Amino acid sequence: MPGETALELLVHGVGGTTPEAMLDDPGTVRVTGDETAAVYRRIDDADAEQRPEDYRGKPVPEAYVWSNLTSGNGSRALWLLLLPFMVVNLAHWMRPTARNHTRHVRLYGMLVRLAGLTLTVLLVAAACEVALDLTAWQCAGTRACAEDRSWLGFLSPEVSGHGWWSQPGRRLALAAVAPAALTGLLWYLSHRTWSAYESQQPLPHQPDPEDDTSRTALGRPGFWYGRRLVARLRAAHTAAGLLTVAAAVGTSAARFDRQPGGPALLDVLGRALDATLVVGAGVVVWVVCRRGRTEHRTDEHLDKALIRWLPGGALVLLVLAVLYAGWSRPGWRSTGRLPGDATFGGITLVQGLLVIALAVVAHLLFQAAPDQRTAMRGLGGPAVAMLACALGGVMTGGVAQRVGDWLDGAGTPGAGGTIDGPPVLLTWQASVIPPLLVVLALVCGWLAVLTWRRTRRDIPTVTRDYPGEPADTARTLRIAGSRARAALTDRVPVVVGITSAVTLLLGAGALAGAWTAGKVPGEAAKGHGAFLAGTAETAQALGSWLISLGFILFVTWGRRAYRDASARRTIGILWDVGTFWPRAAHPFAPPCYAERAVPDLSWRMATWTRTTGGRLVISGHSQGSVLAAAAAWQLTPAVRKRVALLTYGSPLERLYGRWFPAHFGPAALTSLHREVDCWRNLYRATDPIGGPVRVHTAGAPQVDRDALKDPLAYGRTEQHPLPAPILGHSDYQADPAFAEERARLLARLRPGVPAQRPDAGHPEGADGGHEAAAGQEEAGARDGAGGGTATGDPHGRSGKSSG
């Protein structure tokens, strides 16, 4: 009977894999999908629906392969440059759980979006610093530097004989092409990646007011389709970038025109341009603040006038600023630096204030519904936003420092070199990197001590887990050490909190030092003793060297990943974790792969159960379990009750539940447990990523199985004549518990033996229902005791879902 056919949908985890490895068969065929993401079967199982009698008591294995969404062609390596945007986007989703606090939730989202806007302005301002200030203003305006860089000769007054391009305004106008092109590139990437990754229509359904998954927004019809917000933010951020370039070009000329004796017409035009730029900036901020995501429906409506005229108007202002700066001013000479300290100092100050305000709002939200499992007591979002700002500062400062050193040749910018170099603030920011690294080294030392202590403490536990085995000190230490290192994941909130707090304090100190002293750290400390001055100069030199080295390593890693598939896969793992969430705070962040993967899975589950009437087990490993849960939330309640969920190595509670409590908190996971037919979760104490989901629902079977043994055997046995490896996060199918739990889930789903669910009006359920469910679980275990049935493969093979 077709209704008795079962499907096991395997979803791999981080790092990706191949369908051949997942299905443990060299011959596979694509059932549905494309080269980016698709569902595969073994060739022998391609027509399984037409042969239901061959699969009686055995599931049809399918593999959903989505690794090309994050680690496909070499261009993905360029996404490394978008890392700060991705991190600030994560902060948006880290808000604490809130009920009946809509105003605070909206304020939280608005503050994160504003922080994302400052990162765009910071990136474009850094490009302006390199192209306009260091290159066109300082180097081209200095004879010695221009002579060393022959390609700048036509811009130098002395080298070119005061040619047409040698006037400072025209040099700045020409150099503005570079940051404007960067802004256009960001717009193009955002638009292109939306079309390639995030334009998939989610499974159409209407929200059910009685659906228990309303406890999480992931079940809403429009959650995985944020087209309108991304388009609006893309327009605003593009306009912000173009306005930043226009300000860098136009205000420099306007300052010269305000000097006494200047042409009155140019002075008026300059003031009008400045006022127009202020108005444009106000419009951009208003657009960013105005509205967040629309999730209760699939929002197809686009603000076409806004997304067309806002960047277009900013482009017109840029063209006017270029024409205004290019006006002939024979008496204008470029000396010193452009006023970058005020620009970068203002950006840094605004970012610090936004992070502090975000922390206040997050604290209020957490106090309204406190949960001790929430990371950093609800302050995870502000801490991550602070790290995003710091990362953006390091990247932009590294570019400026490196270009300044390169243009100055053998000299040192600002200290006997041919040019003054980057703004003083960037030097102060570089000087705080060594003390920050010292703090991180101390934190790492503290974690090492904790790991060593836990390893020694777990030795008796390992001995009790393997009774009757001959003592092997080295083997015991390896197992205990693996467990202790895996537990370090639970210390990540402490590390993030310390790093963010120290970064905020040191950044405030650097800003205060740059604004009060007006000198680089070494010069500012000369009046306070030789030791202090020497320490400041050492920190300054070491910080500048480290920030330049970090930038070089960053670019080198990206270039290697562009050419090397294995390195690209490593970067893909980073995107697997960081780009699960839609782009809600920054439109230039790397694209959200889940906006393709979740609709794929939900469409597959809904259409298969509807056309076959069969039962389905979705089996997710690691990040695949997160995708499986998100897809299950997108199903209608009727379909969700016909789906069983098997997760292993799952970060659903350990990482997502703690860091994203508003969407994966206890209420959300409990509702998922109640809504799916059944759910079992496997984990190991040696797994640094997966863990228990900690869901306890009265009247329903337990979700978490006791921690699996790892390794399976302590010493050599008849079943394991060679030493059994410590598997940690991988190869959960090697444990017999995997086949046993899968058989139990299939047994519960059989139409002839329906599983009892808790009464809808009494969530706690009845004792009789609980006993019946437990009895069916035992029956399922007996059914799965045989080899062929336990593996769930008509050919005696077991499907794999490696991560």
Q: How much is the radius of gyration in Å?
A: 30 Å
Tell me which CATH architecture of one domain applies here. Answer: 3-Layer(aba) Sandwich
Helix content: 55-70%
Structural class: mainly alpha
Mean pLDDT: 83
Give the neighbour order of strands across the main sheet.
2-3-4-1-5-6-7
CATH fold annotation of one domain:
Rossmann fold
Question: Between the first and last Cα atoms, what is the distance in angstroms?
Answer: 34 Å
CATH top level label of one domain: Alpha Beta
Helix tally equals 29
Count of DSSP strands: 7
Low-confidence runs: 752-803
Shape: globular
Largest sheet features:
7 strands, mixed
Strand content: 5-15%
Secondary structure layout:
Layout: E1 6-11, H1 19-23, E2 28-33, E3 38-42, E4 59-65, H2 68-71, H3 83-93, H4 102-139, H5 143-148, H6 157-160, H7 168-175, H8 177-198, H9 227-257, H10 264-290, H11 304-325, H12 340-368, H13 380-408, H14 424-431, H15 433-465, H16 473-486, H17 492-517, H18 521-524, H19 530-563, H20 565-578, H21 594-612, E5 615-621, H22 623-634, H23 637-640, E6 643-648, H24 652-659, H25 661-664, H26 666-675, E7 678-682, H27 736-749, H28 767-783, H29 787-791
Parallel strand pairs: 1-4, 1-5, 5-6, 6-7
Antiparallel strand pairs: 2-3, 3-4
Molecular structure report:
Residues 759-770 have a biased composition (Basic and acidic residues). Residues 752-803 are annotated as: Disordered. The chain is 58% helix and 5% strand. With 803 residues, the protein is mainly α. Strands 2-3-4-1-5-6-7 form a seven-stranded mixed sheet, sandwiched between helices. Helix 3 runs antiparallel to helix 13, helix 8 (177-198) packs antiparallel against helix 9 (227-257) and helix 13 packs across helix 19. The longest helix has 38 residues, at 102-139. The chain is globular, with a radius of gyration of 30 Å. 50% of the residues are buried.
